[in-house]
Amino acid sequence: MPIFTHFFFNFYFLDAGAQGVGINYGLLGNNLPPPDTVIRLLNSKNIKTVRIFEPDPNVLRALGNSGIEVVLGTLNEDLQQLAENPAFATQWVNTNVIPYVPAVKIRYISAGNEVILGPLAQFVAGAIQNLDIALKASNVSVPVSTAIQFDAIGQSFPPSSGAFKNDAVGAITPVVAFLVSKQYPILANVYPYFAYASDTVNIRLDYALGTASGPVVTDGPLLYSNLFDAMVDALYAALEKVGGPALRIVVSETGWPSAGNGDVAVVPNAQVYVNNVLAHVKSAVGTPRRPGIPIETHIFALFNENLKPAGVEQNFGLYYPNMTEVYAVTF
Ligand SMILES: *[C@@H]1O[C@H](CO)[C@@H](O)[C@H](O)[C@H]1NC(C)=O
Ligand SMILES: *[C@@H]1O[C@H](CO)[C@@H](O)[C@H](O)[C@H]1NC(C)=O
Prior knowledge:
Elements: H1 6-14, E1 21-24, H2 35-44, E2 49-52, H3 57-63, E3 69-73, H4 79-84, H5 86-96, E4 106-113, H6 124-137, E5 144-149, E6 153-155, E7 163-164, H7 166-182, E8 186-189, H8 192-198, H9 205-209, E9 217-219, E10 222-224, H10 227-240, E11 249-254, H11 267-282, E12 297-299
The chain binds 2-acetamido-2-deoxy-beta-D-glucopyranose (2 copies).
């Protein structure tokens, strides 16, 4: 992260989610508790930021005056209209933002989730810009960004060689230029779990879980003892190559499934990973490439969601839908 000024950094990091950590609150379950119950659960656990994937009116109402900030996503299906039709962006803001502010504190708006690489990628930059214009027109001051998937990165090892895939460069470049010009962060979903699960031969489990006792990867002068830092630094390196050396990264998702993949996706691994990554980012040590720059991080996810694809995707929750803990986590 960046050149942007310390003022900017302090404003967005310290001002929000007290400790710079939050949780993803997905709604793809037919057995989830009502939003007001969920908000009480979040407050009881000292979780001060949630990310939602669509502007659900019931969730937004429940967040009002709750003391919990929200990272508010647009549906991916809305990106094309948001990009092509400024009136649609104005309507989106009038429907999904204006009725709720200032009782709801919106930390960022994310134009889509994980669409860079894919047919909707071309609409992200335009959607961000039209939303930004619409928010400004209503005097609402909220950074607009998008959440990128790590799959958009082609090369990630060693971290300093990090680069976007050729297919992603065309879409990410104007997004980065706009975010840099506004000093808004980029959101990124970073899963050491998926990296490990795809290559258990070459990647050490303790490195993926964040429990290695010393450096595992040496990259020039930089030493890596955990895969999370290595992945974030590969993103920083990739962003540097598309005009974003000053861009701040917010990790919009990270987590580890507790079931659905043999002895890799098990409760002890999930519990160790999530607690380690929280402790790591709360210590605000940054990464080897950006020492001392805290990484605001949002855990995925609050609940196991039974309407997601079977397997690990249904098992990222820290809680069962009945609000019993899958495993204990300290926020
Ligand atoms: C936004 O603020 C400006 C300057 O204070 C004011 O003139 C304008 O009416 C405001 N617009 C809205 C939509 O509140
Ligand atoms: C909550 O759900 C989990 C998973 O189905 C189950 O194991 C647990 O017993 C339930 N807890 C309560 C209090 O019902």
